[in-house]
Amino acid sequence: MRGDDNDDLENAHPEETIERSLEAAVARWRAAISDVFARYRLSLFPLKGPARSRLAVADAIRARWVSADRPRMEGAADSTERVAFFDDGSRGNPGPGGSGSVVVELGGLERRPTVVWGAATSLSQRTTTNNIAEFVGLHIVLQHAHHKKWQSLHIVGDSAMILGVMADRRTPRSRKLRWWYEKARLLADKCNIASWTHHYRQFNKTADKLANIAMDTKRGIVYDPQEGPNHALMQVVQDRITGDITRWLEGRDGED
């Protein structure tokens, strides 16, 4: 069909053009509201007292608003391979800290990495320990994966202890860590985690840098590539992720 024929059809049925415009506007509003609640969630960590109930309320409202923001085909399976990295930071241990989380998609025969999401989470409580900050970083990335309905995620971190208890389903002895473990374990089961991999810190640079940014700025920042090339965290993430994901691929290929 020629271009002018398309124009004629649109002129003959202006209601369809209006409907598409309205659908696009609603989708933008849903995405904006989802982003607001995502940033609010980050501001609540570490969860203490009333912050837990506020988190539950925020998640309920967010789920209601964004339930239809991404059209899905019935029965369609998501076969995209995704790898998530997380890390902690605590200046003083205990002391004010931060967490970093990032998700990478691998596409094509070359498995070229594409960063699809990241977060720097500020943890201002002076009682924040390294282990709590690690669990927060893991919780944040699992919560986002569950929200996106991502399945079979690969999880990578540099805390052998936390990766060990998660992979082996061993409840931590510490009462403070037990609460975080149970939350993370529940989300991990919902996301059907495919693997838990330990990296040394030199191969977890992206999440580590995000944790340090959170501690330096004392605020939570969410990275979404759809926000454009000028996002504050874009260069930070892109400069470091290649080495991290290459190490993961080498390790996995070595096991095959």
From TrEMBL:
For this protein, the record's InterPro entries field holds: RNase_H-like, RNaseH-like_sf, RNaseH_domain, RNaseH_sf
Q: Which Pfam families does the record cross-reference, listed alphabetically?
A: RVT_3
Q: Where is the RNase H type-1 domain?
A: 79-216
- Sorted alphabetically, which Gene3D superfamilies does this protein's record hold? Ribonuclease H-like superfamily/Ribonuclease H
A GO molecular function held by the record: nucleic acid binding
* Source organism, top-level taxon: Eukaryota
Q: What is this protein called?
A: RNase H type-1 domain-containing protein
UniProt lineage: Eukaryota, Sar, Stramenopiles, Oomycota, Peronosporomycetes
